[in-house]
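For reference, the entry.
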Amino acid sequence: MTDELHALEQNKTWSLVQQPPGKRVVGSRWIYKIKFKYDGSIERHKARLVARGFTQTFRVNYKETFAHMAKMNLVRVLLSVVVNYGWPLYQMDVKNSFLHEVLQEEVYLQPPPGSNGLKDNMMCKLHKAIYGLKQSSRARYAKLNSVLEKARFVRSNVDSSLFVKTGTNGKLVVLIYMDYLIITGDNAVEIEALKRSLHQKFSIKYLGRLKYFLGIEMATSSNGLFLHQCKYVLDLLQEVNMLDCKHAITHVDCKLRLNIEGEAMYDVSYYQRLVGKLIYLTITCPDITYAVSLVSQFMHSPIVDHLHIVKRILRYLKGSIGQGIIMRNNKSATISGYTDEDWAGNALDRKSTTGYCTFVGGNLVTWKSKKQQVIARFSAEAEYRAMAATTCELI
């Protein structure tokens, strides 16, 4: 807490003033968390001051919001390109990244516990954004965008979190995901120059080569890059007390018949949390995508039978913990895709399910299994809808 308050004061985040009449004050609180290394060991304990942004009112306390979250499909595409071209991958963490952009709105914050404002009944008039405010993400992105554009980076039209710089000295790529920056390119000198430039603008922690990224472990070898979520699976199995369960060979029973009538679940949030974690697990486990798409259709009103399907998926994961995706250097940049559908395969509403997977440079980068929105009256219609979805993904 002392380090966090020191950083806030050093950055001149606020000034203590008397509360103006008629102005709403946003509450504040402390959040404590533990940051882990890629091997599961504790890196450090951290305290962060967060504003209670849920009390803000649209068009009164803020006007626009924005969250720059790189799509995981784009991350896998970038990794495939990097492996095929032999580029290095570096990761950087922007410390207190919300504290670098000046707020456009007038916001007053309740002084946090431990500050001097509590003694004199003063309020904090915010000059810069902090975590929790509705407009913080937009302010942070605006600052990062301006810095990268001054360095002659061009923002991608496909994803606003991707910046590319092409010049006579080579190509540099920067991908933004929350507080993290992934930097790669074909010129080591330009990469080092970019690191020094970012250090002058922000307080940045250099994390070295990319090994652990948002719960995804990346192992580099002579065969390529291997992506997996072993620790994530083990933590999930431990949470549901299934570490010692008997593993299943398949993730779905081939004779499964979906049903919407049965004993309702007492704790719906428990089912929703499990399915949500399984959805995140499909980032590196395309083999469970179809099964997860089935159980995610009953998020609002699950029954006990649906929970049994979820546990069948967990038992399958118990026997496939070490599986993942491998990115090989195929010395190719070819884009290809495959698609299929099952006509009227859903026994409940007779809708078809679209399935596709796409490859960049010979490596699997995107996949999806999703029920179509309308009922196809013949198989050719379902095929065309599946091909249209795959074509959009390829483009």
Notes: The mean pLDDT is 84. The radius of gyration is 24 Å.
